[in-house]
């Protein structure tokens, strides 16, 4: 099947590559010339486990191509996937300018009927706007062609994107057209051989499903952080509480880890966008506001713990940070808690020595060269000569640690653990002061 993907970011590149890998003939279009040049040169602009060999194999097989030429892209695919960004606007609503720019390009260049597949996360009603945009271009050109627009939200997680794309729990398609259903079934046929997981529904329900899923997951995290903050003040260990509630199958163990707040390109913006959508229909989504507020506060918690440990005087201190990406197995730093921490430390006059297995390039791109930031080559270099260590991301390589060795590296033996990786007893036995999240006396 001939397929076009607009946008070669985390979602577009993974979608295009996975669809090529099962035999489809895919062209990926992006307006970022540098990104396309790198992809054409065999370089993968993002870190995603397993993606690089898969891109290379499918390019070599001639099933995956890249272009910046919109006309060429539009005239390739029967299906036109939109996988461009939908960042938050100033008021928190989803900025649809990139989605609508793709719709305009499709309307400008299409020479036969097309099915537009909206994979970007977009507010309810966007499919109608995309269709209207394509049709207005067709009208201007004076041509009579048919365009269908369906919603096919993406549920993949960065860090496990390929696995999620291939083995996700469901494939949601919002459409009322039998023709579109048939084409989407053909597109995803290789993924539903084992188990039927295509869920057809109304377009609006599909658009809302994506926001509801992310808002639910964000709610679980904020709920657990709220309990962690309470546990801290009540002298209880939230890790014991977590096990206690997770064992109830109605609650489950997934997504109830307390920490230093959620980040990334999806949860923060999607919770805000859904709250904004609610306001547009005169409904105040109080729970969503609270989920967002708890998260904002939680992202300050690492700095607050450090400030407490250093009697509110961090000027001239050197703080080591392990983990900069918003979660492990990605280089994505959008809205990462590490950024809130680093920026607060610089504001307070402290220096940062940071290390992340994959996000060093991204950190350099965001913050550039600065005297108060040393980008370390590994976790050992990051702690050398530092006063304290903070863990922001639970990368595997941070999970086991020689605590007596760490004590010798740090001038003030302070460890702030934003991910509750260690056993408090073992850390303290080595003579370190250990401040985790919601673990009894770890305020
Ligand atoms: P991204 O920022 O990584 O990539 C977006 C790409 O679109 C960029 O390369 C950009 O240059 C390109 N682009 C912008 N305008 C374009 C145009 N007119 N034509 C062609 N390309 C254009 O974004 P992402 O993280 O892949 O997210 C894409 C969408 O998928 C968003 O709506 C997001 O909410 C949603 N989503 C993301 C994830 C995730 O984990 N990242 C998961 C599920 C859904």
Automatic annotation (TrEMBL):
Domain of life according to the entry: Bacteria
The reaction(s) this protein catalyses: UDP-alpha-D-glucose + 2 NAD(+) + H2O = UDP-alpha-D-glucuronate + 2 NADH + 3 H(+)
A Pfam family this chain is assigned to: UDPG_MGDP_dh_N
Chain ranges of the UDP-glucose/GDP-mannose dehydrogenase C-terminal domain: 320-424
Phosphoprotein recorded as keyword: no
EC number, UniProt record: 1.1.1.22
Assigned protein family: Belongs to the UDP-glucose/GDP-mannose dehydrogenase family.
Name the record gives this protein: UDP-glucose 6-dehydrogenase
Organism per entry: Halomonas litopenaei
């Amino acid at each position: 099947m001939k397929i076009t993907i607009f946008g070669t970011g985390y979602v577009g590149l993974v979608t295009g590559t996975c669809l090529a890998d099962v035999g489809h003939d895919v062209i990926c279009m992006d307006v970022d010339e540098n990104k396309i040049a790198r992809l054409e040169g065999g370089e993968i602009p993002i870190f995603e486990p397993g993606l690089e060999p898969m891109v290379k194999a499918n390019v070599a097989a001639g099933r995956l191509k890249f272009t910046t030429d919109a006309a060429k892209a539009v005239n390739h695919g029967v299906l036109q996937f939109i996988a461009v960004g939908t960042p938050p606007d100033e008021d928190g609503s989803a900025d649809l300018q990139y989605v609508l720019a793709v719709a305009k390009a499709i309307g400008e260049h299409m020479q036969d009927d097309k099915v537009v597949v909206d994979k970007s996360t977009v507010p309810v009603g966007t499919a109608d706007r995309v269709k209207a945009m394509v049709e207005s271009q067709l009208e201007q050109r004076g041509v009579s062609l048919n365009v269908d627009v369906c919603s096919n939200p993406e549920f993949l997680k960065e860090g496990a994107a390929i696995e999620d794309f291939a083995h996700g729990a469901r494939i949601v398609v919002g459409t009322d057209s039998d023709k579109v259903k048939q084409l989407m079934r053909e597109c995803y046929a290789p993924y539903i051989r084992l188990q039927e997981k295509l869920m057809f529904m109304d377009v609006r329900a599909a658009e809302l499903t994506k926001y509801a899923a992310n808002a639910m997951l964000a709610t679980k995290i904020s709920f657990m952080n709220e309990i962690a903050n309470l546990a801290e003040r009540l002298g209880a260990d939230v890790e014991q509480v977590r096990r206690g509630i997770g064992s109830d199958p109605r609650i489950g163990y997934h997504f109830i880890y307390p920490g230093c707040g959620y980040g990334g390109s999806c949860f923060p913006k999607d919770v805000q966008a859904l709250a904004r959508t609610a306001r547009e229909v005169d409904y105040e989504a109080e729970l969503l506001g609270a989920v967002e507020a708890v998260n904002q506060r939680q992202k300050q918690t690492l700095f607050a713990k450090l400030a407490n440990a250093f009697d509110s005087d961090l000027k001239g201190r050197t703080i080591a940070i392990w983990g900069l990406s918003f979660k492990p197995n990605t280089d994505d730093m959008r809205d990462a808690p590490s950024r809130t921490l680093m920026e607060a430390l610089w504001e307070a006059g402290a220096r940062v020595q940071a290390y992340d297995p994959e996000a060093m390039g991204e950190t350099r791109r965001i913050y550039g060269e600065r005297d108060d930031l040393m980008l370390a080559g590994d976790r050992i270099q990051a702690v050398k000569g530092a006063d304290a260590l903070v863990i922001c991301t639970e990368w595997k390589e941070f999970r086991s640690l020689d605590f007596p060795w760490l004590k010798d590296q740090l001038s003030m033996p302070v460890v702030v653990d934003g991910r509750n990786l260690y056993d408090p007893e073992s850390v303290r036995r080595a003579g370190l002061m250990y401040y985790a999240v919601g673990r009894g006396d770890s305020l």
